[in-house]
Structures are given as C-alpha cells and as structure tokens.
NADP-dependent glyceraldehyde-3-phosphate dehydrogenase (Physcomitrium patens), 496 residues
Amino acid sequence: MAGTGFYESILDNDVFKYYADGEWKVSSSGKSVGITNPSTLKVQYKVQACTQDEVNKAVESAQAAQKIWAKTPLWKRAEALHRFAAILKDNKNEIAEALVKEIAKPHKDALTEVVRSGDLISYSAEEGIRILAEGKFLVSDSFPGNGRNKYCLASKIPLGVVLAIPPFNYPVNLAVSKIAPALIAGNAVVLKPPTQGAVSALHMVHCLHMAGFPKGLVSAITGKGSEIGDLMTMHPGINCISFTGGDTGIAISRKAGMVPLQMELGGKDCCLVLEDADLELAANNVIKGGYSYSGQRCTAVKVICVMESVAEELVSKIVQKMTKLTVGMPEDNCDITPVVSQSSANFIQGLVEDAQAKGAKFHQEWKREGNLIWPLLIDNVTPDMRIAWEEPFGPVIPVIRIKTVEEGIHHCNANNFALQGCVFTKDINKAILVSDAMESGTIQINAAPARGPDHFPFQGLRDSGIGSQGITNSIQMMTKTKSTVINLPRKSYTMG
Ligand SMILES: NC(=O)C1=CN([C@@H]2O[C@H](COP(=O)(O)OP(=O)(O)OC[C@H]3O[C@@H](n4cnc5c(N)ncnc54)[C@H](OP(=O)(O)O)[C@@H]3O)[C@@H](O)[C@H]2O)C=CC1
Ligand SMILES: O=C(O)[C@H](O)COP(=O)(O)O
C-alpha cells in the first residue's frame, strides 16, 4: 500500500507530505491537492499545496546544501547515487502501486519504470565519474602569434540549483532522468512533481532520502503547476530548468531568466513505411510503439505514412493485431487502460470526431467508457483533419496513404513537432537517405520510436524541445566550464 511500511513517514493522515530540508513536512497552507484515479474517477490520493514561502525556503536550503555537495568527492557522490538506486529497486512495489492508481499505468509497466529508473541512476553515477574526472589542458602556442607561456586548465563545474519538472506519464523515470545527472554533477535539485504522478514521485524521493544525501540538497515541492509553477521557474535562485511535458514548456522558456533550459515536449512521431518494408515487423512496431500505455508517450507512433501500394496489407495486419490488445484496468495489466484525465479523453474524442466528420475511414467503432478509450486505427486521413497534425496522447493512430516517399518526408517535416520518427525499409541506403531527410531529433530505422535505452541522446527539434537528454548529455548540460590559466614567466617548451 502506498504510504505504508517503509514509506509510512511520508503520509500525514490522508495527505502525503512534501519533502524539504531532509524532512517530510506538512504545508502551512492547510490545503491539499486531490489526485483523481483515472480508472475510478475518484480522488485516490492527496498531496500538500505548498506555499510561496515553502518554495523560497526550499531554494535557499538547496543553495546552502549545494555548496557542501560540490565539495563532496565525486566518488562519494557516485556512492550515494548507487545507494539510492538500490533502495529504489528494493522498494519498488509500493511505487508501482501508486503509478497504477494515479496514472493508470499497467502494473507490469509500472514495475519496469521503477527498475529502469534504478538503472538510470546507477548509470548516471558511473557516467559522471567518467565525464567529470576529465578536464582539458590547452597550451597557448597552438594559436597564431602566441608562444608557449600560458597553460589553460578547463574543468566542468556545477550550475547550482536545478529545477526538475517531470510529466505525468513517467513521474519516476523522467524525474530521476533529471535528478541523477544533476546530483552527480554537483548540483542541488528542487523537484516539482506532476500532480498526477506526485505520489509515485514522493515515494521515489523517500528512497533518495534513505540513501543519506545532505539535508536540503533535494526537495520535492507539491502543488498545482498552474499555481506554483511560475514562482519556481522564475525564481532567482534557480540556475537551470529541466522540463518534460507539453507546450507548457514553450511558455516556461519565454518566462525563464538567463538559465540553461533542457526541454522535452510533445511529439507527432511519424512512422514512414516504404514499399519494400517488412510489413509484419512494421505492424508489430506500430502495435507496441503506438498503443503501449494507451499512446501516452511522447515517442509513441502518432501518424503512419504508408506507400499506397502496400497500405492495404499493412493496415489489415495492424487491424488484426489490434484485436489481441486487452482493454481494461491497469491492475489487470491490460494493454489499453484509461487515459490520465477526463480532459485528455475529451481532447482525444474531439480529434476523432473531427476526422469522422471529414470522411476518415474507421477500422473499429469509437468506444469510450469514462477515461477508457478503445484503440482505433483511423485510415484515409487527409491533411485537413486535425489528427494528421495534433498529438492525441491516446490510443488512436491516423493512417495517411502516400504516393511518393517525398510526400511522407514532407508530412513529417511540415509538423511543428520534431521529436522522433521511424522508417521501415529493407534497403539500408534508402533508410539512411530517408532518415537524413526526416528533420526530427531521432529517427529509428526498422523499429518504433523510443527514448530508451536511457543513455542514448534524446532530443526534440522545433517545438519538441530545447537541448538534449540522455544521461551523458544531461550531465554535460548541468555543468558549466571553468578555466584556470597559468602564466609562465617565459616561454617554455617540453623537449622531446
Ligand atoms: N514530452 C513528453 O514526454 C510529454 C508530453 N506531454 C504532452 O503534454 C500534454 C499535457 O500533459 P501534461 O503532463 O499535463 O503536461 P504539462 O506540460 O501540463 O505538465 C508537465 C509538468 O509541468 C508542470 N506544470 C504545469 N504548469 C506549469 C507552470 N506554469 N510552470 C511550471 N510547471 C508547470 C505540471 O505540473 P502539474 O501536473 O501540477 O500541472 C507537470 O509537472 C500531453 O497531452 C502531451 O501532449 C505530456 C507528458 C509527457
Ligand atoms: O516523454 C515520454 O513519453 C517518454 O520520454 C517516452 O519514453 P519511452 O520511449 O521510453 O516510452
């Protein structure tokens, strides 16, 4: 049960506490935020609605703790992260249960998210040792007009306080994907968990707490993003913002000050199927890549552009495989579970009705019960339909039949989103040429889009993001360079 046993200290009656100064606390606001279970539509959990003063105090504590943490030997920082990872994996069941109840993630996928997060934390510790143990040594005479009388030592130093804002669909994994790189790089972290997913995130933070990090180094401030978000993203004590979510990120990037931004936003991942594709492979990847977690992944297949000569065969394979998808509750490990909120379900329904009104072909009947939407493949989609361009974040996939490969590439590149895409073809030369022409952050060849494995560079172009994630790139962007120049009294050359 969430908030029991190992986790009992994080719950105060029926409201989960927030975490600051190394302690679990009750907000002075006396208010809480309810978290609705997407499956039951009833309030499942409550978290603290923190105040402006509590935000300010968390940032101040982070600034103080970061000074100590930056002087902590790198190997000790890595050791603390390995302890965090082990505790997280050892106590994954309650976190998985919280994921099931607050974001309707199928139980098996919820467990996977927690284990994957432990692995991400450990890899961040190891990668941080590799990256941050090295600096750069430059000599002056490599630049015209200079003799060898200056040595420059360049090293990576922490930014200070990183504000981590993860989204509802991976409230643990996309939190630690920010926290672990920030910590190994010597930063402090203020975490603003997504409201829908906050309890899972707080359980994860308790594992971090039990790993014995300095008090105040990490805090978890709960409350609606719409109420305390601006206060946090515009706070003068924040030195970096790492955000994953929707176009809220675009608004944040316009408000944030002179701080490095790492943004991973929406996607309209295009699946381009060429005439020589392995259609069985393509169909299997559409099923796994398009409908898992009910399509609520930024890397989900969001539109299929298939050459019309093979479209009938591909569509019939996908339709047939869709009949195997189980629809129901996350507790029963169904493939398709309720989407995260009524507003999300209404948005998806709006896109479907627009397509229907404009003449799209439906291979399944539209069916919705509460937030539960049965999977749809919508065919003969045309550019005038909203679903050709917008991100449903649900179990509905549009099919556009194309006459030329260029038509598919154009559709991919004409979208404001540019996160990932994929191309299915047996010709490796064609795959590379098409991949190069698709202007997205990542193109998968002969597989569905995916962020993992978590050490791969992961980035969105255009409206899909700023900067690059993946463990190595996250560590890099959460540091800055410091140069130390040694000026010798005269030129000196190392003799052979
Ligand atoms: N790229 C990705 O992986 C994801 C993309 N999305 C896209 O975003 C859409 C909406 O999903 P959702 O999770 O609601 O995404 P949001 O962008 O609304 O929320 C993402 C995070 O930002 C927080 N937030 C909200 N408003 C502010 C603010 N003003 N300042 C600072 N933080 C804020 C949210 O907190 P709170 O929950 O309290 O509002 C949450 O933690 C999806 O339909 C999908 O299109 C969603 C999830 C993941
Ligand atoms: O933002 C998301 O939805 C995730 O980055 C997707 O991660 P995944 O490809 O590993 O599911």
User: Anything to note?
Assistant: The longest strand covers residues 150-158.
